[in-house]
Design a protein that fits this description.
By secondary structure, this protein is α+β, with helices and mostly antiparallel strands. The protein folds into 2 domains: 126 residues, Diaminopimelate Epimerase, Chain A, domain 1; 116 residues, Diaminopimelate Epimerase, Chain A, domain 1 (Roll). It is built from 4 helices and 18 strands.
């Protein structure tokens, strides 16, 4: 058994292990990722690998705690950006996921802004298994109809339900059933969102492959984009999670910018 160095960080309680593979390639099996992700072990929502620089950006590879690889992790990307900027003594950096280039910059101590790109609204791009109106999805879950769901992709698939009280719903019960519904061939993240006013939304999130999380950056982006498209909020909105806010801005070109806090960088050791 070997021991490697890694980092532990979080954004509003949404927590990650980060492993730097720029110089030494380190591979973990799906079973090992699941074991490490258990809350009885180190525990994390996602594990993120930093790859060698390529074309002036740093590729990142992301896995959920269930061992499945994913294409996007907003808070995790902000944490990686902060870690790399501090390591390289710079203020701005480009990260590359398998479907987007993410521009990030430190805007003050422990506070990172990430340009997420444009939301995608077509059934093919989300993706959905049927050609239906992604802005008006109804699902039958436990013999109850959940209507007016808004589905979109911000690097990964999401569905948002705008409700009066987002904590009225038991996401431990219905979250996995919505996540795995046949409408979503790549599964989906699930958000119940409560509009406070034109500048504030409270959310409760079930994250695809990770379950209930304290915060989710892409869910914040997806919720803001869906609410803005439905004219429920302004182009700048605060998304409230259990431990604080993420600030989302949508520019005239429909690009999404997310900013918020990151934690200290904690050095850890992992037995592999």
């Amino acid at each position: 058994m070997a021991t490697i160095n890694a980092f532990k960080m979080d954004g509003l309680g949404n927590d990650f292990i980060i492993i730097d593979r720029r110089e030494n390639f380190i591979n973990l099996t799906k079973e090992k990722i699941i074991a490490l992700g258990s809350r009885t072990n180190i525990g994390f929502d996602q594990i993120i690998f930093i790859e060698k620089e390529k074309e002036n950006s740093y590729p990142i590879t992301i896995f959920n705690s269930d061992g499945g690889e994913i294409s996007a992790c907003g808070n995790g990307s902000r944490c990686v950006a902060y870690l790399l900027c501090k390591n390289l003594k710079i203020e701005e950096i480009k990260l590359k996921t398998n479907n987007r280039i993410l521009n990030a910059k430190i805007i003050k101590d422990f506070h990172v802004e990430l340009e997420m790109g444009k939301p995608l609204f077509s059934p093919k791009d989300i993706p959905l298994s049927k050609v239906i109106d992604p802005g008006n999805i109804s699902l039958n879950i436990n013999n109850k109809i959940f209507s007016n769901g808004f589905s979109l992709n911000v690097g990964n698939p999401h569905i948002i339900f705008f409700v009066k009280d987002c904590f009225e719903y038991d996401l431990k019960e219905i979250g996995p059933k919505i996540e795995n519904h046949s409408f979503f061939p790549e599964k989906t993240n699930v958000t119940f969102a409560q509009i406070v006013d034109k500048k504030n939304i409270i959310v409760n999130v079930w994250e695809r492959g990770a379950g209930l999380t304290k915060a989710c950056g892409t869910a914040a982006c997806a919720t803001a984009a869906a609410a803005f498209k439905n004219k429920l909020v302004d182009d700048k909105v605060n998304i409230k999670f259990k431990e604080g806010f993420l600030n989302i801005k949508i520019d005239k070109s429909n690009n999404i910018f997310m900013s918020g806090p990151v934690s200290n960088i904690k050095n850890i050791k992992i037995d592999i």
